[in-house]
């Protein structure tokens, strides 16, 4: 029997998901594996950085009190390559040859660059021609004092951050655990890429779409199953995916058809959040909680699947790791005509450009739920609000900028 569904606005659906608690946890992982992970607490410097005085140039280290009356001959009492140390204090008008990055003797106050020196008659001596304007020494603790914050909590690490941690001798870092995501695509019409094309069958494009969207946004895909439409098979697959993952994403079988078994699972679930949205494409997007695990049931239509991923799933993946959503909501001026009217808010795949006045948006080809030709080139989604009359040109429309585009 057909059950009437209660349509929910995009904003309300997003709020229902935002209010849902997620199982965020912290784990300690090697810094070498932490690129793009979100740091779970302030990371403090374990020591002053640099932790010894370092020469900024290849040259000669001298005492500050000898730094006058040039040109002047100094006695060379040592040679300090990078990586070595030098314990003996410099005496009056004594110097040591020193290389960039090398340990500066404790009582040296300056490094004179090689270019400002000349060989003396005696190889044990060097002639320094002019004074240096700067000490040319990087003092201990110049960049960080011990206990300074190196990386703030909730920061996404990047290669630069990994370098900072490594320079400070930090080998592991506490980060938010990545959400474990199971993907279940459904449909007896689906075939795999290596299968022969035949009438009635289509290649499963949403499976690879969702898997890579999830990975791009920091989820770990634990399984990506493709099921024929079979109520029992779905039931057992769903049960095991729910038990082992933080979020389960399903695709297809969520409308009102004879084989739409996900729609049935949603109605029987512990908590149905929504199974009809006031938006198109993606009106059938459904969310429910079963055994404390969220199931996001996306439409089988590729355009709807793509749209709903960005509006509902990406924010969940970001929130799981305490990162702001990468789908940035803004407004843009609609600068191409759009004549269709809709009872539901229509979300168009668009192309965004920025000029001195702000963003401008135009539809990027088809707005059809079942079309996928524009998924590669779409840079934003934007909303044509429901109305009986066509939207006027140059109206400001709600727009979501898509990441990785
Ligand atoms: N009587 C009604 N029929 C439909 C309604 C309705 O309200 N009443 N809603 C329509 C809308 S809107 C949508 S959207 C679709 C949603 O259907 P489902 O989410 O249940 O998805 P399916 O029926 O399984 O498939 C829809 C479409 O997408 C193709 N598909 C499915 N899986 C994949 C995949 N992995 N990769 C690529 N393409 C896929 C599938 O073959 C269908 O063509 O329902 C309308 N019907
Ligand atoms: O719900 Mo469908 O995705 O509008 O076309």
Please characterize this protein's 3D structure.
- The protein folds into four domains: 10-25 and 178-320, 3-Layer(aba) Sandwich (Molybdenum Cofactor Biosythetic Enzyme, Chain A), CATH 3.40.980; 27-49 and 149-176, Molybdopterin biosynthesis moea protein, domain 2 (Alpha-Beta Complex), CATH 3.90.105.10; 54-138, Molybdopterin biosynthesis moea protein, domain 3 (Molybdopterin biosynthesis moeA protein, domain 3); 328-401, Beta-clip.
- Helices cover 17% and strands 31% of the residues.
- It has helices at residues 10-18, 159-167, 205-216, 231-244, 261-267, 302-320; strands at 26-30, 43-44, 54-55, 59-62, 72-80, 94-98, 110-113, 117-119, 125-128, 137-138, 149-151, 172-176, 180-186, 190-191, 202-203, 220-227, 247-251, 271-274, 279-280, 286-290, 293-298, 328-334, 345-355, 358-363, 380-384, 396-401.
- The chain has a six-stranded mixed sheet, with no helix packed on it.
- Helix 1 packs parallel to helix 6 (302-320) and helix 3 runs parallel beside helix 6 (302-320).
- It is elongated and about 100 Å long.
- It binds ligand LQZAQKY5 and molybdate ion (MOO).
- The site of molybdate ion has 9 residues, from loops.
- Pfam families: MoCF_biosynth (PF00994), MoeA_C (PF03454), MoeA_N (PF03453).
- It comes from Lentilactobacillus farraginis DSM 18382 = JCM 14108.
């Amino acid at each position: 029997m057909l059950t009437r569904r209660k349509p929910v606005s995009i904003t309300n659906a997003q709020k229902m998901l935002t209010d849902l608690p997620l199982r965020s946890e912290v784990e300690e992982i090697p810094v070498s594996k932490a690129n793009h992970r979100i740091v779970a607490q302030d990371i403090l410097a374990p020591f002053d950085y640099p932790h010894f005085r370092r020469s900024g140039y290849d040259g000669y280290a001298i005492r500050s009190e000898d730094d006058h009356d040039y040109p002047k001959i100094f006695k060379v009492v040592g040679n300090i390559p990078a990586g070595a140390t030098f314990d003996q204090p410099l005496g009056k008008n004594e110097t040591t040859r020193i290389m960039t990055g090398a340990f500066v003797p404790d009582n040296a106050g300056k490094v004179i660059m090689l270019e400002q020196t000349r060989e003396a008659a005696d190889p044990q001596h060097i002639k320094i021609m002019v004074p240096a304007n700067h000490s040319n020494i990087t003092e201990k603790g110049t960049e960080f004092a011990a206990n300074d914050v190196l990386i703030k909590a909730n920061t996404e690490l990047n290669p630069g951050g990994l370098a900072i941690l490594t320079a400070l001798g930090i080998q592991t870092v506490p980060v938010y655990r990545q959400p474990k995501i199971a993907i279940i695509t459904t449909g007896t019409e689906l075939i795999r890429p290596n299968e022969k094309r035949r009438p009635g069958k289509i290649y499963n494009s949403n499976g690879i779409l969702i898997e890579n969207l999830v990975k791009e946004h920091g989820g770990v895909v634990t399984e990506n199953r493709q099921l024929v439409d079979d109520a029992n098979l779905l039931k057992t697959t769903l049960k095991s995916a729910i038990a082992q993952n933080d979020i389960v994403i399903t695709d297809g079988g969520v409308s009102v058809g004879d084989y739409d078994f996900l729609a049935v699972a949603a109605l029987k679930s512990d908590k149905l959040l929504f199974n009809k949205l006031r938006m198109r494409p993606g009106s059938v997007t459904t969310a429910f909680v079963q055994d404390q695990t969220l199931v996001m049931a996306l439409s089988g239509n590729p355009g709807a699947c793509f749209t709903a991923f960005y509006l509902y799933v990406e924010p969940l993946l970001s929130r799981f790791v305490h990162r702001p959503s990468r789908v940035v909501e803004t407004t843009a001026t609609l600068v191409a005509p759009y004549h269709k009217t809709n009872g539901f808010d229509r979300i168009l795949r668009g192309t965004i450009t920025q000029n001195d006045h702000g963003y401008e948006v135009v539809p990027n080809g088809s707005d059809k739920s079942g079309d996928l030709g524009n998924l590669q080139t779409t840079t934003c989604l934007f909303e044509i609000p429901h109305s009986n009359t066509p939207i006027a040109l140059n109206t400001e429309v709600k727009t979501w900028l898509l990441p990785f585009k």
